[in-house]
Design brief:
Layout lengths: L1 H8 L9 E6 L3 H4 L2 H11 L4 E11 L13 E10 L6 H9 L7 E4 L4 E4 H13 L2 E4 L2 E4 L11 H16 L8 E6 L2 E6 L2 H13 L14 E2 L4 E2 L2 E2 L3 E2 L3 E4 L2 E4 L5 E3 L9 E2 L1
Antiparallel strand pairs: 1-9, 1-10, 2-3, 2-4, 2-5, 6-7, 8-9, 11-12, 13-17, 14-15, 15-16
């Protein structure tokens, strides 16, 4: 978030007015149409076959400098590449796996697995469409939405909403606007007030093909605006706009931690 805000800030003078609008999608995981997300994912798998290599990442536990007996953290990660991509493990480490990571040991697993496109899509369809929930002594199959908390739910949600942005929010141009999202929490910062209002209008009207409905009570802006005849809650007397545990200064775009997130420290109008 810091890197994107810094780049956006460098594109215009600080005297330029900035319009903030954030909103939350209601029951995001429960409203994503299963058929639509599977169709989208089928278009993303470009290779006929993939080679999957697992490796182990180990790093010191928390407070390892103060507590030498703390146990190291272990994480197994899989990396999928086209079956005809034979870059070595060391080359992958240098290009992507080890970038930005410190105090980490990487251990390669020599044996690779191969999966073809059809097999992957079939596994994904089973994961989405055959999720079972036990209530009492009865089992129910989830017919709407995707399983929240599954190993791929956040990934599917992010791809799905990215597709929504590309199709319905393409009027937001780089240099004028920056759209950030944490799963189902959207934040738009723009120099164009009309674009901020258009964004709010589209999302509040809903996008049925994506199962999108906005929670009006969780919408917040820093300017006066009416959407469908209703006044949207506005941040006043406070320059720090809250988003995902941080405050973003509405003038400078400086970012700081929201250390009192649970307290209602913003006056809404």
């Amino acid at each position: 978030m810091y890197g994107r805000l810094k780049q956006f800030r460098s594109q215009f003078s600080e005297s330029k007015a900035l319009y903030f609008a954030k909103l939350d999608v209601q029951a995001a995981f429960d409203t994503i149409p299963q058929s639509a997300v599977l169709q989208l994912m089928s278009s993303l798998l470009a290779e006929s076959e993939y080679r999957i290599n697992k490796h182990l990442e180990m790093k010191p536990g928390e407070n390892f400098r103060e507590d030498a007996s703390s146990k190291p953290l272990r994480k197994y990660t899989a990396l999928a590449k086209p079956s005809d991509d034979y870059n070595t493990f060391e080359e992958n480490l240098e290009a992507e796996l080890a970038v930005g990571k410190k105090n980490t040991i990487f251990v390669e697993n020599i044996v690779a697995q191969f999966r073809d496109r059809g097999e992957i899509l079939n596994l994904l369809a089973q994961h989405v469409q055959q999720n079972m929930v036990k209530i009492g002594k009865k089992f129910y199959r989830q017919k709407e939405g995707i399983a929240q908390g599954s190993v791929v739910s956040s990934l599917l949600c992010n791809y799905f909403y990215a597709n929504l942005e590309a199709r319905h929010l393409d009027f937001l141009q780089p240099g004028q606007s920056i759209l950030m999202r944490q799963t189902d929490d959207f934040l738009l910062i723009t120099t164009e007030k009309a674009h901020a209002k258009q964004f709010l209008q589209i999302m509040h009207d809903g996008v049925p093909a994506y199962g999108v409905r906005v929670n009006p009570d969780k919408t917040l802006v820093n300017f006066e605006v009416l959407i469908n005849g209703k006044k949207i809650p506005r941040l006043v007397e406070h320059h720090g706009f809250p988003f995902c545990g941080s405050f973003i200064d509405t003038k400078t775009l400086n970012i700081s931690r929201d250390r009192e997130r649970r307290k209602k420290n913003c006056k809404l109008l």
